Amino acid sequence: MALVGARGRGGLIAVGPVLRWGRTVGFALTLPVVLVTLWWVWSADSTNYYAPPLQTILTTFGDVWFSERLRADVLPSVTRLLIGYTGAVVLGVGLGVLLGANRTLRRVTEPVLEFFRAIPPPALIPILFLFAGIGDTAKVIVIISGAVWPVLLNTVEGVRAVDDVLSDTSRSYGVTGLARLRHLVLPAASPQIVAGMRQALSISIILMVISEMFASTNGLGFSVIQFQRSFAIPEMWSGILLLGLLGFVLSLLFQLFERRTLRWYHGLRRSQRGEN
């Protein structure tokens, strides 16, 4: 661990992790800062009605989204997103464990699952709206119907890949049922489950926006399409920016969750690579 001459109450302090964190943040922010700067300079003198200056968009951003729309449009969208994403994760992990642990069940259901997985989720929106209406329930179902697949398929593969030696050892020690699921199957499959959850998050955001564009009276997707239809171009751009920021923040939160949940896995990988 790197040490420098900075002194605290206990003497020398380790700044290695701080430097690594600073370097990571620097790499993460460099390209966005460059792109925003280029956008600002390129659009500064723009007279194109459909491509207003970035300064105008940012000014509109504050006026539009730090107002009543925060409660009326942003919160409903985020709520649908979180409920739909959570439902997809719970359903995907539950079914994935069942299918991954039971070869016969997996063979019986595989053709049906492959058929439904091949259908693009937006194609199901009209049908789902017919049966579930145009309320929040239908939008949550749309998110679940599309986001469940990466979680389900990754969980199945993760459960199937549980080490045979560990499986036999746990069985010989009488570790079965829920104890085996909790202490062996889920931890062993967790890297692939988390990978599926990461893919499902981006799919959930996409389907949240699409479902709100089809039939809705509020939400971010509804607002963006309404701004576009009324030729409120800066407001439309501000909505797109907000969606990007929402996805960015959720991605950061998910990375924190992943690092905490898979700390043992990343430590094992670093050890195998000979890193500290």
Automatic annotation (TrEMBL):
Membrane-crossing residue ranges in chain numbering: 21-42, 82-102, 123-149, 200-225, 237-257
Membrane topology field: Multi-pass membrane protein
Localization (cell): Cell membrane
Record keywords: Cell membrane, Membrane, Transmembrane, Transmembrane helix, Transport
GO cellular component, one term: plasma membrane
Residue ranges of every copy of the ABC transmembrane type-1 domain listed in the record: 74-258
Statement: the UniProt record of this protein carries the keyword Metal-binding: no
Main location: membrane
Keyword Transmembrane helix: yes
One GO biological process term: transmembrane transport
Family: Belongs to the binding-protein-dependent transport system permease family.
Name by which UniProt lists this protein: ABC-type nitrate/sulfonate/bicarbonate transport system permease component
